[in-house]
Amino acid sequence: MTQQRLLFVCLGNICRSPMAEGVFRSIAAEAGIGGLQVDSAGTGDWHVGNPPDARATRAARARGVDISGQRARQVSVDDFDSFDIILAMDSANMAHLRALVPHGSHKVRLFLEFAPESGESDVPDPYSGGADGFERALDLIEAASRGLCAELNARRGD
Ligand code: 4NP
Question: Which ligand 1 atom lies nearest to the CA of residue 12?
Answer without folding.
Answer: 5
